[in-house]
Amino acid sequence: MCSILGYYNTKNSFQEIKDLNITLSHRGPDNSEIKKYRFKNRELFLAHNRLAIQDLDAKANQPMESGRFSIIFNGEIYNHLELRKKFNISWQTHSDTETLLALFEKFDIEETLSMLIGMFAIALFDKVKQKLYLIRDRVGIKPLYWTHQNGEFAFASELKGFAPHLKKELSNKALIQFMSFGYAPADNSYYKNIYKLEAGHYLIFNGNGVYKKRYWHLPKKKIDISYKDTVEETERLIRSSIKYRLLSDVEVGSFLSGGIDSSIVSSMMQQSSSKKIKTFTIGFEDKKYNEATFAKNIANHIGSDHYEYIFKVDDVISLMDSMDRYYDEPFGDASALPTMLLSKFTKEKVTVALSGDGGDELFLGYDRYFFTYKYYNLLKQIPQLPRDILSSLCKVSNIDKLEKMAYPIKNLTKENLYSVIASYTKPWNMESIFNPEFVKESFSKPSYLEFQEIIDFNQIDTFDNYSKIDFYRYLPDDILTKVDRASMRYSLEARVPLLDHRLVEFAYSLPTEIKLKKGAKSILKDILYKQVPRELIDRPKMGFAVPLKEWFRGEMRDILADKIESLDSRFNKDYLRILFSEHQKGKNYESIFWNLMRL
Predict the structure, then answer these.
(1) How far is residue 284 from each of residues 312, 536, 545, measured CA to CA in Å?
(2) Which residues pair with 8 in a beta bridge?
(3) Residue 298 or 469, more confident
(4) Mean pLDDT of 524-534
(5) Beta strand pairing status for 210-214 and 201-205?
(6) Which of 41, 318, 323, 481 has the fewest CB atoms within 10 Å distance of its CB?
(7) Catalytic residue among 2, 72, 113, 342
(8) Can you say whether the dihedral through the CA atoms of 188, 190, 194, 200 is positive or negative?
(9) What single string gives the DSSP state of each residue in 189-251?
């Protein structure tokens, strides 16, 4: 795992670029290099920080060059040894970077990408054709930002890699989106003119302009398959994915929360190992949030060497500054804090850890899918006029949950209703939190996540649409961002076997009736029941929540009050003071408050 950084036609000196690259060194502390190239009669700098996982020799350092290309690469290609055998090319190293170079020499961009099993953010400079390619993996596991301003082109694994003159202006639109969703969705970043390269895309920069293309899509057609065959094929793909992700020259462990997904990954990983694997979990003092006991029971059953840390409010306070530094932009998922702590104490034992992320999106594990389906079918039976009246009553109810329902009840679409259930605070409620004029100037329409181009809400299979929304937005912009920044803060590589693209494609080719034949995530449960007793698994879903509600009434109450008073004129502080008072009396505004704390 590594960081990549590049500058074209920049006014920055070599030393300034070196300093910017140092800010990313937590992602790769084992080696740092910068090389300069001639690109359209101007200078191109490519910089890299390396976390050595495969082929620890210095010959595998980057930038790495072939006759035609120079490459810097963040990620892992798990099937690269198979590709080497298939094409019988001579090698100087055992690294997957050299494998990539050889493939790009032999095949075009999209043909090469179609062969890869892995996670990656790649910068590839074609010295012959004088083109720079940026490439992000199919799912968005590895981050990649870019900008093109006043003839200068730059890219980096994290926003801290951009020089101050490229981060001139904060994006008001991104601020409002952040308060709604806890992150800036799609290609947006917190800065104007700096963008995320979307998952499954590559970008071509020719020295003048930028061209982007999507090279990978979720399958549209559904297959005809029995439930039994589905379970068998899913298990086969997961085992294959885990086997690939054990490729390493350093020790590999596993995050184990005690939930379905991490338990499957840890159990199959232990079965693939000839010795005890190391598993890691975070617990909470508050029993309502604590899954550590469940994780320990599963660890005992599968026979892993298990480690546990109890997360406290003091950890939150001590980690908040670090979180803001390493996430670069406001990030509203409070579970980032225990994930950082989990990564910190995991790195004390191993350099690579497998994570169970992705199972809820692929196999319909979120309750909000079912809530939306239920309430949409209920509300659509009510004529428009009564819904208009009901919407008006919701607006004046002074009950947060009912207020949020006012817009989708009147403007009833699956998209609008899902947005209420899936996000923190809705764009159409922003006039309460912000001053109204600021909202009108900055964000004109109450769209959800701007996914209209990739989601067809006219199709009948609404569950499939809901999971695709999360796959294209919530998964890369929240879940995978959380895990990447938290793990790389401590130079720990996190691998996500449930997001192997072969498993993703199979899962999205399954009809919903197969996925839900025995209830939510029944496919994964039936696989896990073969390995772990039901009584260790069958319990209500908890998620990786943090007890912010209680902390904002206790240990963090004064910190929150001071934060509200420090907000600038964009915010309606009178309204936020009311929310603060109501929260102390029993209402719950923890999501809004946590997002404010991140600004």
Answers:
(1) 7, 19, 10
(2) 44, 153
(3) 298
(4) 94
(5) antiparallel
(6) 41
(7) 2
(8) negative
(9) -SBTTEEEPPTTEEEEE-SS-EEEEE------SPP---HHHHHHHHHHHHHHHHHHTT--SS-
Which ranges of 6-68 would DSSP assign to H, the alpha helix?
A: 14-22
Residue 401: per-residue pLDDT: 72
Report which of 128, 516, 539, 182 is spatially closest to residue 336, judged by C-alpha positions: 182
pLDDT (0 to 100) of residue 62: 85
| Helix 313-327 × helix 336-347 angle, to 10° | 90
Distance of CA 111 to the CA centre of its chain: 26
The one-letter code for the residue type at 350 is: V
Q: DSSP of 542-599, one letter per residue? A: --S---HHHHTTTTTHHHHHHHHHH--TTB-HHHHHHHHHHHHTT---HHHHHHHHT-
Q: Which amino acid is at 474?
A: Y
Buried b (16+ CB within 10 A) or exposed e, 264-273: bbbbbbbeee
Predicted pLDDT at 526: 96
3-state helix, strand, coil in the chain (%, to 5): 45, 20, 35
Show the tokens assigned to 35: 């090389």
Please provide residue 464's backbone torsions phi and psi, each rounded to the nearest 5 degrees. -60, -40
Burial, 91: exposed, middle or buried (Cβ in 10 Å; 0-12, 13-18, 19+)? exposed
Amino acid at 216: W
DSSP state for residue 85 in the 8-state scheme:
H
Q: Domain-by-domain residue ranges, the chain?
A: 2-214, 227-364+465-536, 547-599
Asked if pLDDT for residue 449 goes beyond 60, the answer is no
3-state SS class at 254: strand
Parallel, antiparallel, or unpaired for β 42-50 and 2-8?
Answer: antiparallel
Is residue 394 annotated as a catalytic residue, yes or no? Answer: no
**Rounded Cα distance, 237 and 563, in Å:** 48
pLDDT beyond 70 at 256 = yes
The strand pairing partners of 352, in sequence order, are 252, 493
What single-letter DSSP state applies at residue 429? G
Is 486:343 a contact under the CB 8 Å cutoff? yes
Q: What kind of fold does domain 227-364+465-536 have according to CATH?
A: Rossmann fold (3.40.50)
Average pLDDT over every residue of 320-332: 89
Q: Is the peptide bond before 533 cis (omega within 30 degrees of 0)?
A: no
Torsion of CA 417, 418, 422, 428, to 10 degrees: -40
State the Cα–Cα distance between residues 135 and 112, nearest whole angstrom: 11
pLDDT of 193 > 80? The answer is yes
Record: fold of 2-214: Glutamine Phosphoribosylpyrophosphate, subunit 1, domain 1 (3.60.20)
C-alpha dihedral, 212 to 213 to 218 to 219, nearest 10°: 160
Task: Give the residue, 240 or 392, on which the prediction is more confident.
Answer: 240
* Model pLDDT, residue 446: 46
